[in-house]
Design brief:
Number of helices: 15
Largest sheet: 7 strands, parallel
Oligomer: single chain
Structural class: alpha/beta
Bound molecules: guanosine-5'-triphosphate, magnesium ion
Number of strands: 7
Order of helices and strands: HHHEHEHEHEHEHHEHHEHHHH
Shape: globular
Strand order of the largest sheet: 3-2-4-1-5-6-7
């Protein structure tokens, strides 16, 4: 198995092995992850999310190239990329697609690309993505780009791992309110309208602007934690064309500005604390549940459950029974 030193020294093979172990079953590598934990906490985590096919991977490709160029050879920036693959584990379609979209980056020793499939992940995809990000973080990757398809709650959770969340839209999806439904709109720090070369970009921007105002309006009335803390960052809307690089410079500038904003306003620390609290509570819940389940007599558990199903007792009464045990 990989050692802490292998990870800290950035040995790609060891990192890769540890990431695979995390993906298969985190519980086998918690000792090593514990050591890694003390060396993480330095990376800027940037989430890129949005509906399928909006051009997220293409943008990640451009962003990684641009950030690499921005930093001098004397102090290069190592970039980690985690592409969370929402597709069925059997098709592997998105992984293949990402490989093609990010082919420019292959061979760059300062870039580490990893796809995570949803298959068999214990403790949830968000937990394993977070653990993977920590490994890359400890290995010296100071910028970590996390691509997810913003379609459901688990994607929102993954996006929430990031310090900076980029929501990607594209023309022709103007009426698509997927992003709003899944709550992505409220958490976006930067909005991108990609495929600005296509028709309907004005319409897409108009709809986005209206939705954004609506999201932030309801955000305030519903008393969201983020808008309370975040009074002065106004999420910009940036047009890009990921296939030729248009708008990428602007996007890079906004990502850097957002990071500076977070640090200067102390929000960086507040978000970190909030994220870790949330993550820890998920771990705790998981842990306690599994411990309880393994201690509770299976026949009794099955019987109580059968009684709930046949409506002999209610779920609330069942909880009481479990509680008394
Ligand atoms: N015309 C045009 N096509 C683009 C642009 N950006 C990406 N594409 C194309 O759109 C398609 C999807 O791009 P991806 O980068 O794979 O999109 P994605 O959001 O990562 O897709 P999923 O990961 O499957 O959700 C590809 O064929 C890209 O070449 C753009 O700015 N303009
Ligand atoms: Mg993609």
């Amino acid at each position: 198995m990989s050692s802490l030193n292998d990870i800290l020294s950035g040995n790609r093979y060891s990192i890769s092995r540890l990431l695979t172990a995390i993906e298969n079953d985190v519980s086998n590598v918690t000792d090593l992850l514990s050591e890694v934990y003390f060396h993480a906490g330095n990376a800027h985590l940037v989430g890129i999310t949005g509906a399928s096919g909006t051009g997220k991977s293409s943008l990640v490709n451009q962003l990684a190239k641009a950030f690499r160029q921005l930093h001098s050879e004397a102090s290069p920036l190592k970039i980690g990329i985690i592409a969370v693959d929402p597709s069925s584990p059997f098709t592997g379609g998105a992984i293949l697609g990402d490989r093609i979209r990010m082919k420019d980056l292959v061979g760059d020793p300062g870039i580490f690309i990893r796809s995570v499939a949803t298959r068999g992940v214990l403790g949830g995809l968000a937990a394993s993505t977070s653990a993977m990000a920590q490994v890359l973080d400890a290995a010296g990757y100071r910028l970590i780009l996390i691509e997810t398809v913003g379609a459901g709650q688990s994607e929102v959770e993954i996006a929430n791992l990031a310090h900076t969340i980029i929501v990607v839209e594209s023309p022709g999806m103007g009426d698509d309110i997927q992003a709003i439904k899944s709550g992505i709109m409220e958490i976006g720090d930067i909005f991108v309208i990609n495929k600005a070369d296509l028709q309907g970009v004005e319409e897409a921007e108009r709809v986005l602007r209206a939705n954004l105002q609506f999201a932030h309006l309801s955000d305030q009335t519903i008393n969201s934690s983020k808008s309370d803390l975040n009074p002065t960052w106004i999420p910009p809307i940036i047009r890009t064309i990921a296939i030729n690089g248009y708008g990428i410079e602007m996007l890079v500038r906004n990502i850097i500005e957002h990071k500076e904003f977070l640090i200067n306003s102390d929000l960086w620390k507040i978000y970190e604390a909030r994220r870790m609290r949330r993550e820890f509570h998920v771990m705790l819940r998981d842990h306690l549940y599994h411990r309880w389940l393994s201690n509770y007599p299976k026949e009794k558990h099955d019987q109580v459950l059968a009684d709930v199903i046949s409506r002999k007792i209610s779920p609330w009464q069942a909880l009481k029974l479990f509680n008394e045990w």
